[in-house]
């Protein structure tokens, strides 16, 4: 699909909700170049307000925002416009949050850093089709990290309980959690 020939339909409205202002502006600019009519929000409250007043055809929403959880915006979007195509982004990628995002009505879930091409592909892939496989699949280290994050979230972010369940020393787990996710 060429960038200037995207089939966005009649309604090209796109809501982007992210509290990382430089990322928000860059993504908005990239999406406008691809033909979307972009509206930006930097908080859950602003995202919910726009979703209620002017429900968009498309949305990109960060999972963790300063004032709460981006899934709250997804819920409002599903309520106000059930056909809205929503992609949830996060810098804290974990399988558990991906499942929660999809259950609540997100079309897809991408880990940051996701570029505009990945986001457009996720937004425009028909619901009955699987998205194309990634060009760069997760490494074994990344899969391990995802599993640790999932268990950590299931233990309500309790390091001691997570370490016990993973049969790992608590300090080792703390070192792993302090590092950025592997690529």
Structure write-up:
The chain has 183 residues and is an alpha/beta fold. The protein has two domains: 115 residues, Rossmann fold; 39 residues, Arc Repressor Mutant, subunit A (Orthogonal Bundle), CATH 1.10.10.60. Helix content is 46%, strand content 16%. It is built from eight helices and seven strands; from the N terminus they run E-H-E-H-E-E-E-H-E-H-E-H-H-H-H. A five-stranded parallel sheet has the order 2-1-3-6-7, with helices on both faces. It has a two-stranded antiparallel ribbon with strand order 4-5. Helix 4 links the parallel strand 6 and strand 7. Helix 2 packs parallel to helix 3, helix 6 packs across helix 7 and helix 7 crosses helix 8.
- The helix content, as a percent range, equals 40-55%
Radius of gyration: 17 Å
Mean pLDDT: 84
For the record, the count of structural domains works out to 2
Q: Do you know the CATH architecture of the largest domain?
A: 3-Layer(aba) Sandwich
Find the CATH topology of the largest domain.
Answer: Rossmann fold
Structural class: alpha/beta
InterPro entries: ActR_PrrA_rreg (IPR047772), Bact_response_regulator (IPR050595), CheY-like_superfamily (IPR011006), Sig_transdc_resp-reg_receiver (IPR001789)
Protein name: Photosynthetic apparatus regulatory protein RegA
Keywords: Activator, DNA-binding, Phosphoprotein, Transcription, Transcription regulation, Two-component regulatory system
Domain Response regulatory: 13-127
Q: What features would you highlight for this structure?
A:
183 residues; alpha/beta; Rossmann fold; Arc Repressor Mutant, subunit A; 2 domains; 5-stranded parallel β-sheet; two-stranded antiparallel ribbon; 8 helices
